[in-house]
Every structure is written in C-alpha cells, then in structure tokens.
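Entry for the shared binder. Reason: the reviewer on the internal report wants the predicted structure included alongside the sequence.
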Amino acid sequence: STLMRSSAASDVYKRQVYTSPITLNDNTFDVEVTVDESHINSISLVNLSETATAMYPLMEPALEALSSQIYAAQSTENITYEEENKYTSLMLLDAIDKALEKALVE
C-alpha cells in the first residue's frame, strides 16, 4: 500500500535558499534548503564546526538519510528514520520544515 503525502505537490515555493538555525549546547549551525518554484533541490548543513561534527557524528549521516527521502517525496511528510537517530532526525526535520515554511509563497 502506498502512503499518500498530505502536503500537496502543488505547493509553490519562492526560488532561493532558506536557512533555519539549530543550536546544540554551545554549537549553532544552519540547515540550508534550496528550492525552486515546485521542488526541494538540496538540503545541507552549513556553518557546522569541526567541533560540532566531532561531537555529533550522526548529524550528517542522519541528514543524508532524511534528504534522500525528502527529494523523492518532495515533502517532509511520512519520513522514516533509524531509532538510534530519532532525536537528531526529528531536530533536523523540524529545522527543514521551518526553512520550507519561509520558502512558501503567501
């Protein structure tokens, strides 16, 4: 059975790059989402220090796992993640959603 995605493919974005900050302890970095009118084109971590990368080694692999699903679905609905990455994945999804909300055309 196929899950229907609840956010419509007809969502219209303003073409550009949007960021949403994440703060973990004393480390602040951004999730950067690039969109065009109808597609989520890229999702990446920016301003992630070497210290933060060392302290949170699951951050980048978790983002890669989420991103591949988001590109395929063009949505953050019904995304799955590993149990051991639950906290990291939910935090990243929240930041991605916040960046996408900025991108939506009013």
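Summary line for the report: The longest strand covers residues 16-24.
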